[in-house]
């Protein structure tokens, strides 16, 4: 089954791309998970997601700004993540919640009136 995420207003990013164009769905059976990215997954308490020193402005799809959340210190010392870093396929020095996950977290925190 194919689907998409779609918003109503049309806006363009700095390269002229339509920020509101549908995001096509991918077939789940066509995805190959990255073991190092899965190893870096963790629970982020909302209180930490609201800490001003962790927030950095990013632009969703090159347009609308949102807060990415820096979390590098939260994964230091995790043996599974250190193992993936030693192999060279794990996260590098800086790790943050960004992209579509960061955008959804941003919208959720705005709905809770935690982010402005």
Ordered list of secondary-structure elements with their pairings:
Elements: E1 4-5, E2 23-24, H1 35-39, H2 46-49, E3 55-59, E4 65-70, H3 72-75, H4 79-87, E5 96-97, H5 99-111
Antiparallel strand pairs: 1-2, 3-4, 4-5
Q: What's this entry about, in short?
A:
Helix content is 30%, strand content 15%.
Question: Mind explaining what this structure looks like?
Answer:
By secondary structure, the chain is of the alpha+beta class. Helix content is 30%, strand content 15%. The chain has five helices and five strands. It has helices at 35-39, 46-49, 72-75, 79-87, 99-111, and strands at 4-5, 23-24, 55-59, 65-70, 96-97. The strands form two sheets. Strands 3-4-5 form a three-stranded antiparallel beta sheet. A two-stranded antiparallel ribbon has the order 1-2. A hairpin with a 5-residue loop joins β3 and β4. It is globular and about 40 Å long. The model is unreliable at 1-9 (pLDDT under 50).
**How many strands appear in the DSSP assignment?**
5
CA-based gyration radius: 16 Å
Average residue-wise pLDDT: 75
Largest sheet: 3 strands, antiparallel
Distance between termini?
Answer: 36 Å
- Can you list the strand order of the major beta sheet? 3-4-5
Strand-pairing-aware structural class: alpha+beta
Shape: globular
Low-confidence stretches: 1-9
What level of helicity do the residues show? 25-40%
- H/E topology pattern: EEHHEEHHEH
How big a fraction of the residues is strand?
5-15%
Tally of contiguous helical segments: 5
């Amino acid at each position: 089954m194919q689907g998409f995420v779609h918003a109503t207003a049309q806006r363009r990013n700095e390269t002229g791309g339509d920020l509101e164009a549908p995001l096509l769905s991918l077939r789940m059976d066509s995805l190959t998970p990255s073991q190092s990215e899965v190893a870096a997954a963790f629970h982020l308490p909302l209180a930490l997601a609201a800490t001003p020193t962790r927030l950095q402005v990013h632009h969703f799809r090159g347009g609308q700004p949102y807060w990415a959340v820096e979390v590098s210190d939260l994964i230091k010392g995790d043996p599974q993540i250190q193992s993936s870093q030693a192999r060279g396929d794990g996260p590098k020095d800086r790790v943050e919640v960004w992209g579509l996950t960061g955008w959804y977290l941003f919208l959720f925190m705005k709905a809770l009136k935690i982010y402005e």
